[in-house]
Hints:
Elements: H1 3-12, H2 20-33, H3 41-50, H4 56-68, H5 72-81, H6 84-90, H7 94-101, H8 106-113, H9 119-128, H10 133-147, H11 149-152, H12 161-170, H13 177-186, H14 189-202, H15 212-220, H16 222-232, H17 240-256, H18 258-261, H19 267-283, H20 290-297, H21 305-316, H22 330-335, H23 339-353, H24 364-374, H25 380-397, H26 400-412, H27 418-430, H28 432-435, H29 440-454, H30 460-476, H31 482-487, H32 490-494, H33 501-514, H34 520-535, H35 548-559, H36 568-578, H37 585-593, H38 595-598, H39 601-610, H40 612-617, H41 619-623, H42 626-630, H43 634-642, H44 648-660, H45 667-680, H46 683-691, H47 705-719, H48 727-735, H49 743-756, H50 759-770, H51 775-788, H52 791-800, H53 805-814, H54 818-829, H55 838-842, H56 849-866, H57 869-878, H58 881-884, H59 889-899, H60 907-916, H61 922-933, H62 937-940, H63 942-956, H64 962-975, H65 982-990, H66 998-1036, H67 1041-1051, H68 1055-1064, H69 1073-1087, H70 1092-1102
Amino acid sequence: MNIEAQNFLTGFHNVPGATAKQKHTNFFQFLHRNISLKNQHQTLDYISDNLQAESHLERIFRTDFLIYFRRFSELYQDFKTGDEITLCKLAREDWFFLQAFKDVGAHELINEVLPSMSHSLKVRILKKLPVGESAADAIFDALCDRYGVFFATVLLAKCSKNKITETLQQYPIKLTTNQLKLIYEKDPNLVVVYFDERVRHLGDHTFMNGDPILVFLAQNNPQLFSKLFVKYKFQVRLGRRTTKNYIKSQKSQVLAEPKSFINVLNSNQIIRKLGPEIRCILFEKAENSQFYWSSYLKYFPKKHQFEIFRSVYDSIYYKKFGSDINAITPEILRLIPDPKERQQYAKLLHEKSGDLDYIQYFSSKFFLEYFLEKIDFLNRDERSRFVKLGVCCCTINNDLDTFLRICELLCNRLKNDDNSVVSFLYSLCDNPQLVAKFTKTHWKFVYEILAIEKANRNSMYAITFIWEKYVIFLVENGLDLKPILIDWDTLFYSYNIQNNAKVFRAVVCELIESGDPYDYELCDCQIAAFCKLYNDRNEPKIEVWTHARVLNSVKSRLENETITYWDNWVTQGISYVVCQKNSPKELKNLYFKRLGCASTMDGLNWFLRHEPETIEQNIDSFLERIHLISNCSNNFWRHVKKLSFLNIANRVIDFCQEELRQNEFNHSDVRDLVLALALVAPSEVYINYLKTFIPNEPKVDLTNNEVRNLYSVQCTLVRYAHLSVRPESLYPVALQFCKGDYLRRGLGSVYSCVYKTPELEAKKFLAEINQVKAVSVKKHALHLSCVVCDVSTTLEFLKTAPDSHMIVLKYFAKSPNSLLWNLIEKLVGQTEEKSLNVFKWMLNVTTPRNYRCKFFEIIWDVLDKFNSTEIKRILIKKIDKDCLAELNHDITAKIVKETLFKFEQGHDYIAKILMNTNAKFEFFGEILSDLKKTSSLQSRRQLPSFIQILFKNYVKSEKNNDKFVAQISPVFQSVFSLSEAFMENILISCMRLKGQRVENCAKMIQELNKTVADAYGSVGVNFLGEVLKSRVMSLLFPNDRVKLCYCLMQIQDCVSDYVLIIKLLPNKEPKRKDDFLLYEEITKELSRVSDSKVQLLLNLLYAGQ
């Protein structure tokens, strides 16, 4: 051994430093000083062979040493064992993965390398695998063959475009956002393929709602985002900057479909970028909708809001603004800039409704005169209401002089009226734009009113708001802060001004100088807490810890042992002052003596990272606060584990072990003690301690306190064992907990062990678990085999397992193949009547698209055999429209026959079956014939309900289906004549109207009307009008109702046509300009008709009857 090697080993074990951070810095400096060793391979070999880490920190340093000198063979051995330190550090070392796998072929990787590693390690390798597209394709195929497509998906983003497309088309794969970004970089269109195929597999696109990749696309490829959005109309919200850039790129697309994009883009930016072009489009559907108007008007410049509103209103509606008083809402009144015009409308509305609130829109001069005239006759509630309206009136009229008169009134005549004072203060909160314009004179009165309310403390929110605004006013105008800070509980209110750096700094500096005359110690501690919040976000910092009085206040508080509890702000402030490098040592020792009521997680973290020796000196006080630490931060204990050069870790281990042996303790402390022990103790210490708690009996008597305490400790120890113990040591112990009342806790550690154990060893573990008698444990073994084993091994496990329907199906859904499908068919076919409930759970699993139809059919056959109506109805609801077209014709017929008119909740699904299957409708005619023969009135009444659902579904479907209409119409009419099912026949006939131009619809309705009129006269025409008006118009002609009537008017040729037109006209005059002009022309034409029946109906229409 040469001197250099000896010196390196000695230096490695004697890295200087008082903290972990200092040791880490010094160790890397030590490595840099020995960089010449990189060329001395024999010396490095010797060092690597003899470098034995004696502590947790040295184990970290050993890994750093191996990485620094690129000792591949040693790193690879540690990597294969799944050492957590090595795995975490190698995640950033691409050279390691390149060297480890650059020459490894697909066959060798899949069949030799991966089986020797754990599941978690295999996933890490595949994510970091340095391979080209052709090699990735080969590895992906090999992974699919051995482990199934679900596991292979980890590598999919590295594959070629063709392989990705082929895989997405074949399997219902879900990719992460990061994977989608990778395939986007390869080819943006692959993202479109992903969404298209996933929608096809799932039969639904709601999974896209809120997906982060959509925001990414909007930012990086607006054209692609538009393409997907127009197609799927998903729900997502884009931010201000993204919207701005998106509109710049896709302006024409947004203007083409504004009503769709309005819910996706940032409203503020839409108005800013498209205001003039989008005004009418934005507001055209806002028929007197207060919410809708105000939602978008607020984004326009305030001085132009009413002008915009009026111009848009006048362009959309026939009647000019102001002619319909009902269209003027309070929100619109507030926008009217002309006081006379505003008062005119407000007066009309006030006279019409009698609502006092409208007087706030009058001129402020009129309001004040009216208030003074009424004040002596008002009760307290009425005065309070007038005060609130007065503040609003001054805001609307921007009248600060009248506001002063109201303030004088409150200070003189109403100062003893608590209701009026509170109402005044809260009104100021609701009108911040008025408060922002206050001068010194206004604040003088407001402050006086604030002082009146101070004693009552009934309006803390209002007081806080006004105090904040007043302080901001004083600071920004360079006025004296001291009086208000002395008079008020400043610290209570100052929290809200911390975001205003200038004001907050001025307030705090004044408080530090003046203090609180009543309790300056408490005040100083709270000031320190607020300074911490300020200093975390602002520069320069307020160095409150250097102020002598603050230091004395903190010391005095810590010395006062009569106080056993402080509020959070005091505790935060004390910790902030104490936890500074230049704080007195005496103060820090006092802090630890009062740790029970003074400590915070931030404070203890500071000591751990900057002065761990202070913790060691006060270790007893520190240990008493273990529960505080465990509740907040696991990283704290991981850091303690690094400080093996101090005695903190050993004391923590001894303390936790001793406390857990106690018979009486607070159950909430058990988790804290165990977590600290698991994160600090060496693996062998923890496992030996755990072995002493292995249960003797599977059942526990929880009524016995001593037994219950022991049970709590046992369960918690095994639950967190995986944080400390290597899987090969933990597994045999954890398995002994997998029984009775301990099962749930023991399984967590077993799962962790199996995930972290090499595949070949994991198979042995699973075989052992499978020998456990408990059926629930065996099911967990099956689940684990589906995750960590290859497909063939998993299949063998599943074949021998009883009642494995759900596990097999879930595994198949993730990695579909023909062998698993054969097993599913076998299991479903063997299901007995007593086990049919398993189908309820199986039907909730989304099966692969190309197997879904077969899946429903094999379950239906079993249910049919046992005549299980309840589960059949569940199955019917699960059948999607894409699957309907592929269903077996006989099964389709059975579903319809067993559901239609027998299960009303299933009518929606039967309607979809009839619309989406290509089957003939003979069985539908048979069902209708049977229904017609039945004497059951209840069954007969289900017919109109079903036809209405069928009509609604057809009208709302995406495409026209002329074949469906051509099939169903003759079948229905062959059973039920027009007189037997009038409404039903009309609705079926109206299905032909879908997708037609309004002019064509008018001709078809006229023909239908002629048929009805010839058969039933005016009675039939009346009923036809009612059916069309109540069932058809809103679905087929939501915006073209008047236009349809106009088209009918153009082609009318008899009185019955006039009657139908009158029946279809809206009861009230339409407000929109285009509709009104058509409506007026129709009614003028009708008024010229001489027929008495027409005139009667027309006059009834005018009368609203």
